[in-house]
Design brief:
Layout: E1 7-10, H1 14-25, E2 30-33, H2 37-44, E3 53-55, H3 59-64, E4 71-74, H4 80-89, E5 98-101, H5 107-119, E6 123-130, H6 132-138, E7 141-146, H7 148-161, E8 164-165, E9 169-170, H8 180-209, H9 214-224, H10 232-242, H11 264-275, H12 280-293, H13 295-304, H14 316-349, H15 355-361, H16 373-382, H17 393-415, H18 421-433, H19 440-451
Parallel strand pairs: 1-2, 1-4, 2-3, 4-5, 5-6
Antiparallel strand pairs: 6-7, 8-9
Helix pairs in contact: 1-6, 8-11, 8-12, 8-14, 9-10, 11-12, 12-18, 14-17, 14-18, 15-16
């Protein structure tokens, strides 16, 4: 009798292939299948050779090689490919078999797919997986959500292959029902967009305004990684700045300045707009990538608008210190916006997301792993009803100390013509958030003037709406009062 695999995995691209090797290294036998079957043959004759990995060359054969109840993980491209893979699997599955989508699916698609798979008598998990190629191989952060009945069966596998942090805590725990796992992964990726843009803006000021050498920039980022800015992205930034091409010149200088994207950052920004959450920093990071993609048009514009006269009215050491403060402050604000979206959607969908646990899950394996995620976790442990992490004593104290550095950096970047859209968004949000009075009263008066949209008064109780006949030509009828 043939031995059955502990788990099956479909999709042998970079993430899938490395997850298979991770699973096998942790003692699990793995059945593998890929739509292009030549990929299966290539894999088992190379990286998988001699390992407890079972190849299959059709969906039917693949399913037959997995022990019951079957646990099948899909690592295929988000979109139609996921639906087609589900439909190909269902005829061969038994009731209570488990399908796990480990790709970057839109959480709204996951909600729909879970209902569909459940209607066929099977169980479904949408599991966000973060960590890139290295994380998939050595231990990623995994964010599973969906059918809780399936969790106890997949928990020993997913937690064993995940990254571990202090006291061997796995960076994988149950997120919640429905599409919550993929929603949390989407927000993770949105924060990732923000982090990467903030770092690139700091790098741009170092390069264009301070005119630092790459070896100096490497030293700065390397030293920052030893302090409160310690994170995976700071670490790899220092590595990149120190990497030389064959001619011994910095490789990064030769990379075309057009940033790609796969959609998760855009989804995060769109979702924030739909839910009425201010995610301005992350939205600006998405827009910055869009601007970067217009390389040809930017080259034309650069010839039409001459460079401004650079201001040298700064001290190098002081500006570098301000850059550290600016990055720290903006990073906190970015995470505050992301966690605000998590909280809002959790409440709306009755998911009861554990924000403290999510912060710990992001401490290892994932792309945005950083030391201060422990502080975010502690903030939500100390106050389960915390309105915003900016109001937590730890982060409040840091912002009081770093906000001036952020202001100084933005002033310098503006005077020197260096684009810093996400740093600017961070400060604008912070100044709006800390303001007891905003000019929205004028906006509301304008809305009432042209559209009779009504307004509330500061000298009346909240929830009572008024309309003024501003021109003496209007009537007393007002528009319905509502807000998105």
């Amino acid at each position: 009798m043939d031995l059955k695999a502990s788990i099956g995995l479909i999709g042998l691209a970079v993430m899938g292939e490395n997850l298979v090797l991770n699973l096998e290294s942790k003692g699990f036998s793995v059945a593998v299948f890929n739509r292009t079957v030549k990929k299966v043959e290539s894999f088992v004759n190379s990286r998988a050779k001699g390992k407890n990995i079972i190849p299959a060359y059709s969906i039917e054969e693949f399913v037959s090689k997995i022990e019951k109840p079957r646990k099948i993980m899909m690592m295929v491209r988000a979109g139609d490919a996921v639906d087609k893979t589900i439909d190909a699997l269902l005829p061969y599955l038994d009731n209570d078999d488990i399908i796990i989508d480990g790709g970057n699916s839109n959480y709204l698609d996951t909600i729909r797919r879970l209902e569909y798979v459940n209607s066929k008598g099977k169980l479904y998990i949408g599991a966000g997986v973060s960590g890139g190629e290295e994380g998939a191989l050595l231990g990623p952060s995994i964010m599973p959500g969906g059918n809780i009945e399936a969790w106890n069966q997949v928990k020993p596998i997913l937690q064993k292959i995940s990254a571990k942090v202090e006291n061997n805590i796995p960076c994988c725990d149950w997120i919640g029902p429905s599409g919550s796992g993929h929603f949390v992964k989407m927000v993770h990726n949105g924060i990732e967009y923000g982090d990467m843009q903030l770092i690139s803006e700091i790098y741009e000021i170092m390069r264009k305004t301070l005119k630092l050498t790459y070896s100096k920039m490497y030293e700065i980022f390397n030293s920052w990684n030893e302090g409160p800015l310690n994170s995976y992205l700071i670490e790899i930034t220092s590595d990149i700045l120190n990497y030389k091409d064959e001619d011994n010149l910095p490789l990064v200088e030769k990379i075309l300045d057009t940033a790609g994207q796969k959609g998760t950052g855009k989804w995060t920004a769109i979702n924030a707009l739909d839910k009425g959450v201010n995610l301005s920093l992350i939205a600006q990071a998405v827009f910055a990538r869009i601007v970067s993609s217009e390389k040809d048009e930017r080259e034309i514009a650069s010839k039409e608008f001459s460079d401004i006269e650079v201001s040298n009215d700064f001290d190098e050491k002081t500006l570098i210190e301000d850059l550290h403060s600016a990055l720290f402050a903006a990073k906190i604000i970015s995470y505050a916006q992301g966690f605000d979206l998590l909280k809002k959607v959790s409440k709306e969908n009755e998911w009861d997301l554990d924000l403290s646990s999510i912060a710990l899950m992001w401490r290892g394996g994932c792309i945005i792993r950083s030391s201060f995620l422990s502080n975010i976790s502690e903030a939500y442990i100390n106050d389960k009803n915390l309105k915003n992490i900016l109001l937590d004593p730890y982060f409040k104290d840091i912002l009081k100390k770093t906000q001036q550095g952020l202001r100084n950096v933005i002033s310098t970047s503006v005077l020197n013509g260096v684009a810093t859209p996400s740093l600017n968004a961070a400060l604008s949000f912070f100044d709006s958030y800390r303001s007891n009075s905003l000019p929205a009263n004028l906006i509301q008066a304008q809305r009432d003037y042209f559209g009779a949209h009504t307004y509330e008064r500061v000298d009346r109780e909240r929830g009572v709406f008024f309309h003024t006949n501003w021109t003496s030509r209007g009537g007393v009828t007002s528009s319905t009062s509502y807000s998105i």
